[in-house]
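for the recovery benchmark. tokens below, seq after
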């Protein structure tokens, strides 16, 4: 037999090399973990519709339509089977190739799937084409050793550094059986995730299927995506490994089934058209297929996720094709069904309410609990919840076995008047109190009485006989909580009700603070020395001075408080306040001059005679007045002194040395003097001397005021 290979075409385009349960575009260029999705996939969940058409200019167009429609139906049915390869086929002549089988395979490429085997990849020896698809590894050579079982593509193959591209079942590495849930938790690509006993990923090749016992009589089992179609061979059904790739992609970008990004791919054959998602035709002289080929365009949807945007499937025009004309659509008049199913053509096999009964076989297709109306009708269960013999749907109290209608008290509540007050228990809150129907303020069984008329009933009033109080407070019932001094303590508890600073009299009594300024534990009000922590009465020495028993001078004052402990001084005079009494102080007035040298020992303003005045000067003022100035004799003038300015003739000044007979005796506190009486004719002489309590000082040299007449 001749086993032809499908060519991969590359242009603007991506070649169809890849692997069922793996994906086109996965490899060294784009990454070995790339998942390729069908046309129309954007990353969102839902239904992804893929339009399929036959090109209106295709050769054999009339014969091509039914095989294409059959392939669309086969992929949509998702029916898989063992023994899906019939060879030789009684339908085909020995050199014919089945067009429907080739299109079934190529349609998988258009959906993003590729070959699970190496096939005719460049660099693959012809004898190694059935080994599981991989990259050629770091050494650039496909390493193919079929292991101990001598079966290519099985789990004991030794592939050296080739990198696996085929997704396998984690639990078994059996490509002929599919997991109940297909996603990245049940399937893997990395050989590190292989189950124990597996050396490499197995692929659904027919020789391995036979070795594992999956053939059905003479019919073999193989994935439709396996590269290599024989003449006189029919493979119009899918195997489970083909659906692994589809369902793995349908788990979405997160690779997890059952999440919002899951989708379902649905193919729609729209008939003849030049433009659709997948265009099928026999070569029209411009293609490059030998047997058959698929050319796809793609886009990147997300990292590691690509999507086909368009695909062209070509059948080689030089091949002896057999075009099956038997439709596999068993409902040709029903655009929504290809099999009659349980409900027949024209009626969808729906179970709207999910109760396991199809809508066409039940009368309550919106009620998951019923298939027929029963006594209560669809949507209402025929239940007698309270077991009173009346179905819930025909009674109003379906949870009350004693009532079928609410009556006065409603379902579940008996129409009773326990206290006989004419009000049903259900409509009053005091069903055991014949005097009340509601608790009021005091509750059932307690009358709402207010004995003191303060609007608070006795049951809530802790002072029921005191209209001014409802609680005893701090003073008790009958006593007002007044606080006359506003100190926060009521008068009834306040020992000083008029003193806001005290609530007990303390040591000093109300109105007087119990202050202890010197911290001697005796309150100031009782302490004769409130600032002396060592005394509470002045004693002989007074506050602040310790009273000792020694009195050296016998003046009645102890030495510790005596200004002159060795000189009797009972008066304790101390003029300058230096704590040395006048009786023993060498400078009584504290002016810095000892008493023996002090001309006024009791006058702190004068302690020495004024020295001779020097530097007497005279000048004429702007109005002709005499302006006198001299050196300040500060040492003798500091407190009580003054300057004496004397004027007269020179003989007068010399004759009268006591200076009192001279003309113009004047006084000044500053070292300057203005004489407005100076004249412009004759001459006036001036002398200046200092005077204080110690007497007058010496006069300096006189100075003349030229041309001034005598005064």
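predicted aa per position
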């Amino acid at each position: 037999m001749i086993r032809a290979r499908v060519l991969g075409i590359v242009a603007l385009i991506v070649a169809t090399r890849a692997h069922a349960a793996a994906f086109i575009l996965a490899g060294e260029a784009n990454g070995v973990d790339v998942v390729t999705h069908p046309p129309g996939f954007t990353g969102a969940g839902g239904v992804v519709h893929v339009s399929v058409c036959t090109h209106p200019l295709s050769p054999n167009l009339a014969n091509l339509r039914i095989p294409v429609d059959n392939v669309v139906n086969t992929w949509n049915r998702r029916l898989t089977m063992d023994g899906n390869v019939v060879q030789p086929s009684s339908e085909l002549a020995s050199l014919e190739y089945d067009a429907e089988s080739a299109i079934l395979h190529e349609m998988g490429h258009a959906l993003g799937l590729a070959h699970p085997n190496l096939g005719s990849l460049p660099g693959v020896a012809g004898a190694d084409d059935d080994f599981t698809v991989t990259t050629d590894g770091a050494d650039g050579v496909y390493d193919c050793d079929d292991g101990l079982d001598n079966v290519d593509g099985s789990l004991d193959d030794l592939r050296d550094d080739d990198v696996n591209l085929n997704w396998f079942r984690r639990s078994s590495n059996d490509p002929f059986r599919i997991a109940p849930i297909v996603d990245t938790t049940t399937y893997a690509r990395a050989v590190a995730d292989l189950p124990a006993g597996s050396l490499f990923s197995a692929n659904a090749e027919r020789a391995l299927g036979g070795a594992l016992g999956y053939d059905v009589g003479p019919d073999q089992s193989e994935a439709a995506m396996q590269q290599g179609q024989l003449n006189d061979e029919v493979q119009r059904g899918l195997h489970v490994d083909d659906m692994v790739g589809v369902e793995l992609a349908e788990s979405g970008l997160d690779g997890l089934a059952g999440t919002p990004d899951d989708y379902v791919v649905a193919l729609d054959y729209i008939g003849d058209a030049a433009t659709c998602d997948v265009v099928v035709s026999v070569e029209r002289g411009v293609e490059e297929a030998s047997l058959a080929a698929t050319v796809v365009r793609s886009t990147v949807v997300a990292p590691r996720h690509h999507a086909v945007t368009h695909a062209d499937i070509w059948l080689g025009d030089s091949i002896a094709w057999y075009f099956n004309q038997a439709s596999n659509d068993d409902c040709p008049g029903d655009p929504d069904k290809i099999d009659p199913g349980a409900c027949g053509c024209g009626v969808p096999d729906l179970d709207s309410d999910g109760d396991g009964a199809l809508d066409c076989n039940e009368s309550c297709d919106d009620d998951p609990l019923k298939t027929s109306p029963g006594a209560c009708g669809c949507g209402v269960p025929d239940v007698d919840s309270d077991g009173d013999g009346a179905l819930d749907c025909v009674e109003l109290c379906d949870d009350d076995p004693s009532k079928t209608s609410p009556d006065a008290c409603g379902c579940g509540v008996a129409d009773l008047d326990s206290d006989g007050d004419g009000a049903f228990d259900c409509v009053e809150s005091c069903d055991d109190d014949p005097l009340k129907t509601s608790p009021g303020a005091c509750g059932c069984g307690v009358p709402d009485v207010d004995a003191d008329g303060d609007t608070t009933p006795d049951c809530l009033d802790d002072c029921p006989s005191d209209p001014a109080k409802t609680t005893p407070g701090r003073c008790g019932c009958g006593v007002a909580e007044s606080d006359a001094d506003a100190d926060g303590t009521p008068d009834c508890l306040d020992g000083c009700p008029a003193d806001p600073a005290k609530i007990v009299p303390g040591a000093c009594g109300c109105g007087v603070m119990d202050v202890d300024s010197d911290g001697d534990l005796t309150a100031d009000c009782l302490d004769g020395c409130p600032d002396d922590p060592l005394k509470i009465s002045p004693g002989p020495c007074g506050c602040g001075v310790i009273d000792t028993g020694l009195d050296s001078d016998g003046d009645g004052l102890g030495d510790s408080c005596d200004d002159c402990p060795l000189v009797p001084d009972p008066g304790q005079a101390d003029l300058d306040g230096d704590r040395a009494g006048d009786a023993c102080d060498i400078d009584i007035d504290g002016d810095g001059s000892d008493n023996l040298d002090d001309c006024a020992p009791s006058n702190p303003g004068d302690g020495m005679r004024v020295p001779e005045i020097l530097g007497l000067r005279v000048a004429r003022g702007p109005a002709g007045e005499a302006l006198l100035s001299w050196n300040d004799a500060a040492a003798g003038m500091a407190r009580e002194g003054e300057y004496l300015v004397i004027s007269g003739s020179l003989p007068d000044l010399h004759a009268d040395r006591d200076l009192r007979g001279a003309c113009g005796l004047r006084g000044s506190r500053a070292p300057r003097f203005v004489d407005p009486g100076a004249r412009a004719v004759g001459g006036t002489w001036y002398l200046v001397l200092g005077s204080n309590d110690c007497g007058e000082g010496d006069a300096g040299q006189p100075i003349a005021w030229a041309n001034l007449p005598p005064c």
